[in-house]
UniProtKB/TrEMBL annotation:
Keywords: Methyltransferase, Transferase
GO biological process, one term: RNA processing
Coiled-coil positions: none
Boundaries of every tRNA/rRNA methyltransferase SpoU type domain copy: 122-261
Stated name of the protein: RNA methyltransferase
Molecular function GO labels: RNA binding; RNA methyltransferase activity
Superkingdom: Bacteria
Key word Signal present: no
Organism from which the protein derives: Saccharopolyspora thermophila
Length: 267
């Protein structure tokens, strides 16, 4: 089981994986950094422990580490315990959730492998906001989407804020990166998928008429500002819109995604 180690000195090198998370140039989950996956809070840490990501260590106040005793019973990793003040000095801010865990990244999933084992997919272009990305993964998990394909301009789903906003579901919904955008959408068509581009433009087919619950379907979602590029829409099989009241021209991408994912489920 995880072995508890008391940390009394904020400069203790054993907790360096958790150090200075508030500084943009030191966060280990940033691209170009050490590439660690960081989970915050008991629920998200539990989901990290149940995921394929190899856990390195936990760090928290005694009460939160004790709450995770059952989840860590099979782990041979350190569980560092400190008081709230020492933990805040290490992390760089006061952590209300009281516990963190860090893990190495799992091997990358090949897009073809993900497509081959899926029937409902989300495909993202230019989703750069970490909170929106995390919310999209949470919605995908809740509404039965089998996986997420990341096209050009997307942020890292394993960035700490994305993991937190997703409530750890980014750790259970498989994702893969498309290297050639939007040319790699051909991969979906070659495997029998219908590709639907979600856009508010008036000539798009209303969502209720798009039959997204029929057969293998991938829904394209674009960036928070301009939405999908014309190239992405042109590469899709059809353009689909969510009808809205007069005076409202768009929805937050995570909200639009949830509506589309529900339509895909057929429930």
């Amino acid at each position: 089981m995880a072995h508890v180690v008391e940390i009394c000195d904020a400069d203790d090198p054993r907790v360096d994986d958790f150090r200075d998370l508030s500084r943009a140039d030191r966060r280990p989950d940033r691209p170009g950094g050490r590439g660690l996956v960081i989970a915050e809070g008991v629920v998200v840490v539990e989901r990290l422990l149940a995921s394929p990501y190899p856990v390195r260590a936990l760090f928290g106040v005694r009460r939160r580490i004790d709450e995770l005793a059952a989840a860590t019973a099979a782990l041979d990793v350190p569980a560092y315990v400190a008081d709230a003040d020492v933990m805040a000095r290490v992390v760089g801010f006061h952590l209300n959730r009281g516990v963190l865990a860090v893990a190495d990244r799992a091997p990358a999933v090949e897009p073809a492998d993900l497509v081959d084992r899926s029937r409902r997919l989300a495909v993202l272009e230019g989703v750069g906001d970490h909170e929106n990305l995390g919310a999209l993964f949470r919605n995908a998990a809740a509404l039965g989407v089998d996986g997420v394909l990341l096209g050009a301009g997307c942020s890292d789903p394993l960035y700490r804020r994305s993991v937190r906003v997703s409530m750890g579901h980014v750790l259970r919904v498989p994702f893969a990166h498309l290297a050639s955008w939007p040319n790699d959408l051909k991969l979906l068509r070659d495997r029998g998928f219908r590709v639907a581009a979600l856009t508010p433009r008036a000539d798009a087919k209303p969502l209720r008429d798009a039959a997204l619950d029929q057969g293998p379907v991938a829904v394209l979602l674009g960036s928070e500002g301009p939405g999908l590029t014309e190239q992405a829409i042109a590469a899709a099989d059809l353009a689909v819109r969510i009808p809205m009241a007069d005076g409202v021209d768009s929805l937050n991408v995570a909200t639009a995604g949830a509506i589309a994912f529900h339509a895909m489920s057929g429930t």
